[in-house]
Amino acid sequence: MNKHGFEFSFAWLFAIFVGALILFFSIHIVKVLVHSERYQQESETVVTLNILFEPFSTAVESGKAGVINFRTKTKIYNKCYLYNGFGWQEIKTSSEQSLGKEVVGVGEKIKDKYIFSPARIEGEKLWLMVFPFHAGFKVADLLVLTSRRYCFFRPPNYVKEKIEGLSDIIEITETWNCSKNSVKVCFDTDKVNGEKCDVAVYGNCIEGCEDKFEIGYVKKHNITYYSENLMFAAIFSDDKIYKCNLKRLAFRISTLADMLYEKAKLMNYRGCNVNPYNELVALKFVAENMFNATNPDAWLWQLREKAKMLEEKNEEAICKLY
């Protein structure tokens, strides 16, 4: 065998081996750097989202809406936790990229908002709607998120008034002529012309209401009860997130009822005749049961009744509690 030829071949093989190792590690380092950069970008995106949510969480108008545009198709993940009563929601994002697998950023823990949405939203646009929630007094704002358009078939006037100005998100039709790929929402029926509705809303308020749709239930994969503006939370949200946020709201109501009870005692001490004690105790009792229930939405009718009694008592008082 030619000794020089053997040395030459070995040198080439060694060079190719070393070159392959260098290429492999270079690609690996690039992937790590890209992954790290994307992770940071997604983490920054969700922080920005929380900042953009802020103006909506202090809104006073029902049905106020806005839109957030992303540069690329983006996934938003929403999880709800009940730890310590008040709980929180964790929002994460992941943007569509041409290179590499999906990268989900670090979650933003949001404690002061009640965000209703599917567990995962995907799109280049994110629509936001806000609806106030009361239990005799203002409790919080319901922040509703969606990346899909909805079509409401023959909604009652009660609903039309609440969604006025939301035509970019919700279209209203009287002829079952919904836009392609929109989510079809029907009222008092789950079928139109033999076609099944995606969501069916049924009003069942018999007395003490201006409209029967003030309380009722929403039928999707299962049945979810609502009262007043919680109708929209139930329509747009996943069942698990809806019920988790109901419990968070119930805990907040219970805490606020305690604070108002102490405030009433202080006002009476100062000579102001305020006596909503029984109504506050009753409201707190229902809120606590709602928080501890497997199906908190089943308590919404009683919560509404106790809240109305408290509101009437407050209106009668010379010194208003709130």
Report on the structure:
The structure is a single chain. The chain has 322 residues and is an alpha/beta fold. The chain has three domains: 147 residues, no CATH class; 81 residues; 75 residues. The chain is built from six helices and 14 strands. Strands 3-2-1-5-6-4 form a six-stranded mixed sheet, with helices on both faces. It has a six-stranded mixed sheet with strand order 8-7-9-12-13-14, with helices on both faces. It has a two-stranded antiparallel ribbon with strand order 10-11. Helix 4 packs antiparallel against helix 5. The longest helix is centred in the N-terminal third of the chain and has 55 residues. The chain starts with a helix and ends in a 6-residue tail after the last helix. About 4% of the residues have low confidence.
Total count of helical runs of at least 4 residues? 6
Q: How would you spell out the order of helices and strands?
A: HEEEEEEEHEEEEEEEHHHH
Arithmetic mean pLDDT: 82
Tell the overall outline.
globular
| Multimeric organization | single chain
Based on CA atoms alone, the radius of gyration comes out at 27 Å
Instruction: Give the helix/strand class.
Output: alpha/beta
Query: What's the arrangement of strands in the largest beta sheet?
Result: 3-2-1-5-6-4
How many distinct domains? 3
Question: What fraction strand?
Answer: 25-35%
Q: Can you give the helix content as a percent range?
A: 40-55%
Summarize the structure.
Helix 4 (239-269) packs antiparallel against helix 5 and helix 5 packs antiparallel against helix 6 (300-316). By secondary structure, this protein is of the alpha/beta class.
